[in-house]
Amino acid sequence: MAVKIRLARRGRKKRAMYDIVVADARAPRDGRFIEKLGTYNPNTNPADVVLNVDSAVKWLFNGAQPTDTARTLIQKKGVLLRKHLQIGVNKGAITQEQSDAKFEEWQKSKGDKDAALLQASASKLAGEKEAKMESERKINQARIEELAKKNTPAPAEEPVAEAQAEGEEAAPEAAASEAAAPEGEAEA
């Protein structure tokens, strides 16, 4: 019996989620399986992979062959590294404690890299969001100024007309006072 580590699809239309399973190669994709090793959710950013590493290593030692996609997922979780280290333990090249220490160190460095990538992605998204908000503020300010210009000329024309009318009334009075002033100077 050929055994495969592969993905079994579940979830709704266009929002697929996958189970990582060990199944007979002849079984249908979403059909009967031997053991469920974990889940894979590609709908999140970054994709969420939950995997039982020890069970996956056990199945690899028993001869299960991963499909290409499953191989990528289990490699990212360190299953293939764990298998490689375990082969070294079985041959006597390293001890189990050394193997576990190397695997823990790898997991820690991998976690740090993933956290750094997540932080960079989040800061990039925040920067893009702030840039979009700033452009929206500029557009809104331009719209407000345009509306203000559109609405203010009508009230501004009436005071100008009143000032011109007052200016015409004041001009004859000023001319009369100027004419009266020279007469007063001549008498003095």
TrEMBL record:
Signal peptide: none annotated. Residues 126-188 are annotated as: Disordered. GO terms for cellular component: ribosome. InterPro entries: Ribosomal_bS16, Ribosomal_bS16_CS, Ribosomal_bS16_dom_sf. The gene is rpsP. It comes from Ravibacter arvi. This is Small ribosomal subunit protein bS16. The lineage of its organism: Bacteria, Pseudomonadati, Bacteroidota, Cytophagia, Cytophagales. Pfam families: Ribosomal_S16. Residues 153-164, 172-188 have a biased composition (Low complexity). Residues 126-149 have a biased composition (Basic and acidic residues). Keywords: Ribonucleoprotein, Ribosomal protein.
